[in-house]
Amino acid sequence: MKIKDIVNRDIVTLTNCEHEPIHIPGSIQPHGFLLGLTLNWTIDFCSANIANYIDAVYQDVIGKDFSAIFGLKAQEEITTYINDDETQLIFPLEIDLLQKSFKLSIHKSHDIYILEAEPYFESREQIAELYSQTIHFITSMNTTKTLQELCALVAKRTREVTGYDRVMIYRFDKDYNGEVYAEDCRDDLERFLGLHYPHTDIPAQARELYLKNQLRLIVDLGYEPVPIFTVDDVANKNLDLSLSILRSTSPIHVEYLQNMGVGATLTISLIHHGRLWGLIACHHYSAKNISPETCLAAKLQGEFISSQIDLRQSTDEYLIAQKTALALEHLTGLDLPLNPESFATIISDPELLNLCNAAGVSICVGGTIYKHGITPSDHQINSISVQIKAIAKEDTFNTNRLIDYVPELETTADAAGIIYHSLGGGNSIIWYRPETLSEINWAGDPEKAIIKDSKGLHPRNSFNIWKQIVKNQSSVWLQPEIYTAASYAHVLHKEIILLMLSEEEEKYRKQSNVLKETNAELENINWISTHDLQEPLRKIQLIISKMLSEIDKVSPQAIFESLQRVSNSANRMQILLQDILKYTRIRYTKEALQKVDLNAIMVETLDEMKEVITETGTVIEYETLPEIHGIDFLTKQLFSNILQNSIKYADKERGSVITVTASKEPEPYQLSDTIFCHWISFADNGIGFEQEYAASIFKIFTRLHNQEQYTGAGIGLALCKKIMQAFGGTIRAIGKPGEGTVITIYFPCDHLNTVLT
């Protein structure tokens, strides 16, 4: 039978050091010996140092039946222990092997049972004493409030129980860089509290083993690894020691600890939600071994921390959660109208920032950006929205380091961190946090964790404090902040959907009203085309027919008068057609109106009407007029039609006087269901009208007086009404027969999106 060792002699290089197979070293530490048994109790593996503990050598043990070497009684005790899973979780098996007492740790690795035997301690700690210390710890634990206070207490109690020179609670960040979160050590030692260590100090394969095996003991870092031997019957034969307590340590890790001056270590895993949250790292500056009972007590300290992480973090975040919940309750309780102005109200509410403790917020709706607090520029907000939307899962995203996703924002510190939520249809809400500069004290340069020289790879030997200034990142968003932001984004999304439905309903309502008015106009236009246009045309035909039938009898003077009557009728037709064309050009569109100075409009209108004003002797008085939202040429036509209407219906027995007054400042004025902010009144001393006709005078082709008395097609005031509708305003008239007429136009507080096409 040929025997060989299974020592892993693969060379570790810079390219593969992160994949070093530390779970199959093929060797163990020398403070115990190892046996590997097949399922039929054949000894297939044995460490070379077995002769140091019992009267046997590995060459004589390998390949033999276990009971043939150690006796049937020992085999039965091990069988009973293996079948009692609860016992294995608490204490190793106390057993006599060849008349010597050992503590035996047993676990299964694939199809091999691994037995690790260590001698009894001469001065074992009493269970009662460890129990008393644990009770004292639990009592003290209840006095701590925060997670850090608890960790500090664990560090102190663990050092008291184990007797190590230094005990540290080591916490990982999301990238597995470590921080000394709590510490207790000898007074003469330099403190490591607050120092950071790069993720390369504990590589991925080591972290994986810490998840599998929660307790790791190195008794003497100056040890010589003991090889494990086996029968040479399979190529590349090895033994997975992931759960072994005697497993030999990576030489790079041993050198790393020796460079720190450490002589022995105990490491306990802190596991939270299946992830390695941190470690309890115990260092001694000389060789040190501890009993299984002490190891168990130390492991229990780690269980206390792991069980308290959620609770203590919840306590730390309780006040934040309470604040954000109150902000959410306030915002969802707002009673806002279903119109775009609601977003201006929402964005200015300070509770929108308190919702997730942000410094700034922006809401993008329908191409408009509403923002408040410290935010990027509109261009940058659009860029962020486009790029984050492309990578956001389920339309939500948060980060405290936006530069990793939107590199062009490197020059701004206003948006180092964001919470993004899509609101559908290209709309979004984004909360911002500015850059928070922070200083990290590393235990040595993190870029030089592994050094290569002529002798191979080595861990760094300098642990001098190396300072790093971290830029381009904000404080981390906490879960209560993320959850509350998501809740309100959902509420806002529903508000936008309701707004869109409301706008669609309003649009259809307006279109329906426009359609009704258009149908009425078409009926009137049809009537005028069959009546008013035919009446002058009939006159022209009659006059010309009479002239042709009496051409020899008609005097030149009569011909001239007849032709003049034909010209007047033709002019009436031309004016009527022009008025119809003007009226039909005004339509509702979605273009923005512009600011119009009514004083300038009044001056231009009076200049164009100078001849008719002089000819009629009309006096027009006006005061300072406001600015409104409209269109210049339509506003001029509006003023011209109103003034011409007053001049046309002037009282012949007294001079025509028109007085124009207006509101000085924007002031809410409710008319029907609409709020207006500016009004302009045109008051004349003309013939007036009965108030019962106040609405009908604005209908197209409506006349209160016959054609012979007052010329016109009845389009002037109808045109004024349509112009005011296009501006989002309205027009009203008050008349008294024999006294005059007051026509008032009302402009809305916020300009409407209606203009001429």
From TrEMBL:
<keyword id="KW-0600">Photoreceptor protein</keyword>
<dbReference type="Pfam" id="PF00360">
    <property type="entry name" value="PHY"/>
</dbReference>
<dbReference type="InterPro" id="IPR003594">
    <property type="entry name" value="HATPase_dom"/>
</dbReference>
<dbReference type="Pfam" id="PF08446">
    <property type="entry name" value="PAS_2"/>
</dbReference>
<dbReference type="InterPro" id="IPR035965">
    <property type="entry name" value="PAS-like_dom_sf"/>
</dbReference>
<dbReference type="GO" id="GO:0006355">
    <property type="term" value="P:regulation of DNA-templated transcription"/>
</dbReference>
<dbReference type="Pfam" id="PF01590">
    <property type="entry name" value="GAF"/>
</dbReference>
<dbReference type="InterPro" id="IPR016132">
    <property type="entry name" value="Phyto_chromo_attachment"/>
</dbReference>
<feature type="domain" description="Histidine kinase">
    <location>
        <begin position="528"/>
        <end position="751"/>
    </location>
</feature>
<dbReference type="InterPro" id="IPR029016">
    <property type="entry name" value="GAF-like_dom_sf"/>
</dbReference>
<dbReference type="InterPro" id="IPR036097">
    <property type="entry name" value="HisK_dim/P_sf"/>
</dbReference>
<keyword id="KW-0716">Sensory transduction</keyword>
<dbReference type="InterPro" id="IPR001294">
    <property type="entry name" value="Phytochrome"/>
</dbReference>
<dbReference type="InterPro" id="IPR013654">
    <property type="entry name" value="PAS_2"/>
</dbReference>
<keyword id="KW-0597">Phosphoprotein</keyword>
<keyword id="KW-0418">Kinase</keyword>
<dbReference type="InterPro" id="IPR003018">
    <property type="entry name" value="GAF"/>
</dbReference>
<dbReference type="GO" id="GO:0000155">
    <property type="term" value="F:phosphorelay sensor kinase activity"/>
</dbReference>
<dbReference type="Pfam" id="PF02518">
    <property type="entry name" value="HATPase_c"/>
</dbReference>
<keyword id="KW-0675">Receptor</keyword>
<dbReference type="GO" id="GO:0009881">
    <property type="term" value="F:photoreceptor activity"/>
</dbReference>
<dbReference type="InterPro" id="IPR005467">
    <property type="entry name" value="His_kinase_dom"/>
</dbReference>
<dbReference type="InterPro" id="IPR043150">
    <property type="entry name" value="Phytochrome_PHY_sf"/>
</dbReference>
<feature type="domain" description="Phytochrome chromophore attachment site">
    <location>
        <begin position="146"/>
        <end position="307"/>
    </location>
</feature>
<comment type="similarity">
    <text>In the N-terminal section; belongs to the phytochrome family.</text>
</comment>
<protein>
    <recommendedName>
        <fullName>histidine kinase</fullName>
        <ecNumber>2.7.13.3</ecNumber>
    </recommendedName>
</protein>
<keyword id="KW-0808">Transferase</keyword>
<keyword id="KW-0157">Chromophore</keyword>
<dbReference type="InterPro" id="IPR013515">
    <property type="entry name" value="Phytochrome_cen-reg"/>
</dbReference>
<dbReference type="InterPro" id="IPR036890">
    <property type="entry name" value="HATPase_C_sf"/>
</dbReference>
<dbReference type="GO" id="GO:0009584">
    <property type="term" value="P:detection of visible light"/>
</dbReference>
<dbReference type="InterPro" id="IPR003661">
    <property type="entry name" value="HisK_dim/P_dom"/>
</dbReference>
<dbReference type="InterPro" id="IPR052162">
    <property type="entry name" value="Sensor_kinase/Photoreceptor"/>
</dbReference>
